[in-house]
Every structure is written in structure tokens, then in C-alpha cells.
Amino acid sequence: MIELTNIARVYGKGESATSALRGVSLAVEAGAFVRIVGTSGSGKTTLLNVIGGLDSGYSGTAVVDGKDLRAMNDRELSRFRNGTVGFVFQHFHLLEHLDALHNVALADFFASGDGGDPLRRAGEVLERVGLGDKTGSRPSQLSGGQKQRVAVARALFHRPRLILADEPTGNLDTRTSGQIIGLLESLNRDDRLTVVVVTHEAPLFHGATQTVRLEDGRIVGANIE
Amino acid sequence: MTLHKLGRFVAQNIGRNRKNFIFAGIGIVVGVSSFIFFTALGSGIRRVVSTEIFPLDANRITVIPRKAGFSGPAGLRPLDDAAVKALEALPDVAAVYPRMRLAVPATMSLVGGRFPEEELARIARLPGVTPDIVASVKRLDLWLEIMADGIDPRLVKDEVQFGAFADPPEGQPVPFLLSKRLVEIYNASFAETRHLPLISEIIIPFVPSLPLVINDSYVNRGLAGPQENIRVRIVGTSQQALLGGITLPLATVRALNRRFGGEAAADHFDSAVVEARSAAHIASVQAAVREKGYGIDTSQQRMADSVALAVTLVMLGFTLISLTIVGVAAVNIGHTFFMIIFERQREIGLLRAVGASRADIRAMIHGEAAVVGVAGGAAGILLGTAGCLLVNLLAVRLLPKFPFKPTQFFAYPWWMFAGGMLLAVIFCLAGALSPASRAARLDPSQTLSGR
To answer: Could you list the pLDDT tens digit for every one of the 451 residues in chain B?
Structure first.
């Protein structure tokens, strides 16, 4: 599903240049549940952005779902993000002026072709994450856990094959974190989605099939459970 | 992103930023409304110039004999009956209407004391005539040097308001036409201050016949030859009539010229109005007329063009002011979009994450700018039109009467509204160009992480 070869990412130029990734190579099978761990600033989020096609300023080769991301132009990368990847962020990034249903259906605006009634599909995925009764709620009316579940539903809306979650439990209490982790694990187990999670809280993700440890932009440990 | 989806998305965003957009769009509204106001005013003034002051028929030209030529006297073409026939025979010519000046001077004395009592009584019954006006008519002591010419009655057949415009039987008053421009000047600046009745279509049938002495002059008392006293009666006003005199039927003038100036004075016309089959044929007719050795009188056209150019230049100045206002508004719109984009950086990052391309982001910002433009343009058009209507109402009611004072100071050509709308949309899009480009270049990985 994911094949990274010698990925390097440098921010800035000259003396202020900072290396976020230094020659990272990684292979992830389809259907895997990967947790990427490491200290703050170790390059976890950068790695996730490279895999998701959000960051294209790297060197090396990133092949995801059989597609060489560096060979794609902006339009093709956008289509890749819209069709293949679902993102879940630590800060939810829900749009305050939209209710849960319309937040979930956001990706439909950029989808090519007719995928049916977007609001009906959004209702289905909200039901799937246990928020079938919150379709009309604005983000300000939802708890942290509910917001993150709406964000997961948004990631699932366009039936992706890969879920990329960046610290999905970083803003949640322990009980709610457990619910979100359980949700991600069930997506991996029941829906056969490949899930890559960046986390500080590695022990919470019991269902992970693969762990990647990053330190100072390098993989210092990778094991498959 | 399809147009339909873009429309839905833009509608969502416009709603939540409406306060910002309303403030940003005020400049557009002001600029477009001033554009509408000045363009409508300019069009209105040009319309008065071209239809009232210097009326021009698009399918007519005035042909004159050449006064001199390098080819010598043999090359000069007199404008006589044969020439008129030759002009009528030209391709694309529908009709030729010759005109001829009265070859001798004439005078008219309007002395109120000499008016018959029954004529004065008729004047007193005219609509709008007060006892004060009747008293002024009785005191009238007007001695006029009259210039006259004759025109083909077919040329003015639609402008005769009373009776017939034709050479009358012996002893009957000769019908005459007054210039519409002369009447306008008389009504607006002469009659009122001297308490004289205004000339209008309604009173024309009631105006008594007036005395005209042919071969007489107050300026030159030494004229030789006999004089002839005739009576003339106004039958209408016409754009074709002589500006500084009266216009009689061509046959009457021809007969008078024959009596007072001989055959030569009765044979040569001074000019002829040549009517083409349509305005589209005018160029070919002009060329054919010149080919025949005749000149074309463009003095009316030149005067109309000069005035229209002056009006256009003044209005262009005002239009430039409008454009400046809209330009400043476009800069303001640019600032507003920069502010909005700064506030929405993370949102733009999210949109990129869920599949928006750079082109989608640009289209989104341009779509919002276009909506501001359309709304601002529509509001500007409404405000500008309302301003025109209000100013027109006040001008008609409050401005003193003056020659050619129109009842409509403004004209509303369709292209003006289209231009106002286009102006608003183009300037809004131009204002949003740089912010849209910046928004499209935002790095989603950086904006989402808050870097």
C-alpha cells in the first residue's frame, strides 16, 4: 500500500535549513494498522503529510496505492487525496459555520463525477461513527470526542483505502481517546482500511500491526507485531 | 470542481462573510452608480444635441453645387431641374428634395395696434393666453427683416400641423414653417420675458395671417424695383425649416424669384436633400453625388459632432472619476480578501486535504469576488438609476426654462447597464486576483499544523 524510499525533507534554506526527514524508507502492506511514534519534532507529522500527498517538497520516492506521488501534478494529487486518503487531525479542523452533516460531506465539492446524494452518504457515515442523531449539530454544540468522530466520518465519506490520523487522541481525555482508537481499529479490522496513526500514546493502540519509531528524522525502530 | 458545486460552495462562504463583503462592496456600488449617472447624463445630452439641436437624419445628406473648381467654369455643376433628375436616377437614392432661397429681401411688421379686433379676440381665447399677454400683443411693435427659402413640401409632409403646405391659390395666405430650434429659442428666452404668447402646436391654427413685404428691407432702403405685399400663415414647425427665417413652399419661392430675379434665379436651387434608401446606403450615395461633381454640406454634421465631442470629453472626465472610485474599491476588495484568506488559512489547508486543487481554491476566491461584483454592480445600477430619476425630477421642476430644456435629461442605453455590471465584476475579479493566487499557493501541510 505504501512504499517510501529514501525520503528526505528539509525546511528552510542555507543556515536556517532544518531536516525533518533524513532518508526514510518504509513499506506498509494494504490492510495494516501502523502506529508512528517518536518525540516531538522527530518528523512524524511530516512523514504522514508525505504519505498523504499534502507535502510535495521532499526528495526520494513515495508510492502510495500504486501511484508515484512525485510524478503527479497538483490536480492529480488533489484527486488522489480526494479518492484514496482520509485525514484525521488532532485539532479536528471542522468548519464552524457548517453542521456535522455538511462538514462530513465537504469532500463532495471536489469529487469528480456523481457519487450519489452526498448528504445521504454523510448521514450514513455519521451513523457508522455513532453520531446519527447529531447531523444538524454545529461543532460548537459537540464535545471533543464527538468532534473527532465527525472528523473520522469526514475521512470516511469518500470511501478511502487509507486513513491517516495525526495525533487523533491528542486533544481528548482517556475515555474518549479509547472510543476513537476503537473506531479506528474497527475501520481497520472490519472495513479492511489501511490505517496509519501518528501518536505520542503508543500503548493505547493495541491493535496496531506495525510500529515505526522515528527519531530526529530517521527511523530508529520498525517492527511488525 | 463543477460550476454547480462551485456555486453552492461560494454561496456558503458569502453568507458567513457578508459583513466584510458588504463593506468591501460599498466602493463598487458608489463607483458603478456614478458611472451609470454620468453615462446616462452624457447619453441624454447627446440625444438632445442630435435630435433637437442639430437633428440629423441617418439616411439623408444635403447636396450643394460646388462654388469653385480647378477644372474651371465648365467643371461646375449647377443644381437645376436636370441635376435633380440626375440625382434621383442614382442607384440607392429614394428621393431628392430641392430647396431654394428667396432671392430678394423681405420684411414683416408686427404692430399690435393694426391687428383686427376679431384676431385679438381669437388670441385671447387661446389656451394659456392671459389678459396680460393680450395686452402685450396689442402693444407689439416688431419690425423684422425676413429671410426666406422654399422647400419641397414632400420633405415636411409629416410636420405640417395645420392646413396644407403648398403654393396657395391667388389671394390666399402663403403657408410657412418655422424652425423648431427657432421656436424653442423664442419660447424659452424671448416670449416669456416680453409677455408674448408661446408658440405651440395647439395655438398654431389660431395664429392670424401676417403681412410680408417682398423686395423690401429696413436695412437697405435703396432697393430698386416694385414691392409685393402678401400674407403668410404659420402651418407648423419643422427641423427642416430655415433657422433664421421662414420656410415657404418651393413653388411659391420659385414664382417669387422668377418675378423679382428673373429666370436664372428661378432655375437654380441652392441645395437639395438627397434621401438614400436606407442609412446603410448613405456612403455609396455620397460617393455617387461627389462623382457627379456636387458637394455635400456637412456643416450641420460638424456642429453636431463638435458639441457631441465636447459632451463626450466632459463625460469621459466624470467616467474616469467613476473608474477611479471602482479601482480604489478593487484595491479595498483585495485587502478584504487577503484578510479573509489569512483568517481561513487552516480551512483552506483542510479543503486541500479533502481534495481541493490549487485551481479549485482560486476558483473559490474568484467566485466569491464575482458574487460581490454582481451584487455591487446590481446595487450600483439601482442606486445610479434612482439618482438619475431623482435628479431628472428636480431638474425638470426646479431649473428655469431654457432653450432645448429636455423633459428627460438622462438616457438609458442597454449597454450602459451591461457596462456597469461588467465593470463591477471585472474590477472585483482583478482585486481578488492576487489574494486568490496567494490562497492557492498556501502549503496545506503548514497551514494545518499551524506553522
So the answer is: 788 888 888 888 887 778 888 888 888 898 899 999 989 998 888 888 777 777 767 788 899 887 655 544 445 678 889 999 999 999 999 999 999 999 999 999 888 888 778 878 877 887 777 888 888 888 888 888 999 999 999 988 888 888 889 999 988 999 999 998 888 888 877 887 777 777 777 778 778 888 899 999 888 777 788 889 999 999 999 888 988 899 999 999 999 999 998 888 889 999 999 998 888 888 888 899 888 888 888 776 777 778 778 878 888 888 888 888 888 888 888 888 888 888 888 889 999 998 899 999 999 999 989 999 999 999 999 999 999 999 999 988 888 877 777 888 899 999 999 999 999 999 999 988 999 999 998 888 888 876 5
Task: Check if B354 contacts A (Cβ < 8 Å).
Answer: yes
Among the partner-chain residues A75, A91, A107, the one whose CB lies closest to the CB of B354 is A107
Whole-angstrom Cα distance, residue B210 to residue B172?
12
Spell out which residues of chain A touch residue B346, defining contact as CB-CB under 8 Å.
93
Taking one residue from A and the other from B, the number of pairs with CB-CB distance under 8 angstroms is 75
Domains of chain A, with CATH numbers? Answer: 31-54+74-224 (3.40.50.300)
Inter-chain residue contact A78 with B355, CB threshold 8 Å: yes
> Which alpha helices (H) appear in chain A, and where do they start and end?
44-51, 74-83, 100-104, 118-128, 144-156, 174-190
Which residues of chain B neighbour A106 with C-beta distances below 8 Å? 350-351, 354
- Phi, psi of B220, rounded to the nearest 5 degrees: -120, 100
Q: CA-CA distance, A67 to A1, in Å (whole number)?
A: 9
Residues 6+ apart with CB under 8 A from B197: B123, B126, B128, B129, B133, B137, B191, B203
Q: Which residues of A touch B358 (CB under 8 A)?
A: 74, 78
The sheet that has A85-88: what strands, in order across it?
Answer: A85-88, A162-166, A194-199, A33-38, A210-215, A218-224
Cβ–Cβ contact B165 with A under 8 A:
no
Residue B346's closest chain A neighbor by CA?
A93
The helix (run of H) or strand (run of E) holding residue B180 is: helix B180-185
Q: What ipTM, to 2 d.p.? A: 0.90
Residue type, A153: A
Dist CA A200 CA A196 (whole Å): 13
**Where do we find the cell 528539509?**
A10
The residue extents of the domains of chain B are 3-54+304-449, 81-292
B448 lies within 8 A of chain A by CB: yes
Interface test with A, best of B6, B14, B19, B354 (most A CBs within 10 A): B354
Calculated CA dihedral for residues A119, A124, A130, A136, nearest 10 degrees: 20
pTM of the model: 0.70
